[in-house]
Design a protein that fits this description.
alpha+beta; globular; single chain; 10 strands
Length: 187
């Protein structure tokens, strides 16, 4: 390799590295469509009721020992970093665990007070349909434990734009600053 070519290749590599998305952020353009679930108030909830504003959505369950509390805490930090205007962006916590009732979901999401969150549940068929819409997955495993089954699930936070399309998703390594920046950009 020519000595003159090496600095050019290094420069190209540095520029390319600077153009990457922040860790954990994945920009997409994926239409979601409508879905209907049961809200933590016991009433029917339709995604279309939030058209015109961005929404965050996360699949999880209230008995989750680690991933869900970690992501919800990260979301709470993100809202604080994004500022007061971000409180118009609701977070939808869609439970994939049949043990999660509307009152239990309401209690769970209220623990993260900085997050304007709604817990959502439904029949297995309803939940499965929403999970498929987002390209997510979950599996309920009986562990034989007195604590009940474990639920393996996709750990992603989806950012839905005002038109109902997934504009981006954040995986578990996304920093709260990255999430906050994307929230601000959608306001």
């Amino acid at each position: 390799m020519s000595r003159r070519l090496l600095p050019v290749l290094i420069l190209i590599s540095l520029v390319a590295a600077g153009c990457r998305e922040p860790a954990g952020l994945h920009r997409v353009a994926m239409p979601v469509g409508e879905f209907t679930l049961v809200g933590d108030d016991g009433n029917e909830f339709r995604l279309s009721s939030l058209r015109g504003r961005p929404v965050l959505l996360f699949f999880g369950y209230t008995h989750c020992p680690d991933a869900c509390p970690t992501m919800m805490s990260k979301v709470a930090i993100s809202y604080r970093l994004a500022g007061e205007k971000a409180t118009v962006v609701p977070t939808l916590f869609v439970s994939v665990d049949p043990r999660d009732t509307p009152p239990l979901l309401k209690q769970y999401v209220s623990y993260y007070g900085a997050v304007p969150a709604r817990g959502l549940t439904g029949t297995k068929a309803q939940i499965d349909a929403v999970v498929r819409q987002f390209g997510a997955s979950y599996e309920i495993r009986d562990t034989g434990s007195a604590a009940g089954p474990m639920v393996d699930h996709t750990i992603r936070l989806y950012l839905i734009d005002g038109e109902g399309n997934v504009a981006a998703f954040f995986d578990s390594i996304a920093a709260p600053e990255t999430i906050a920046k994307e929230l601000k950009a959608k306001l």
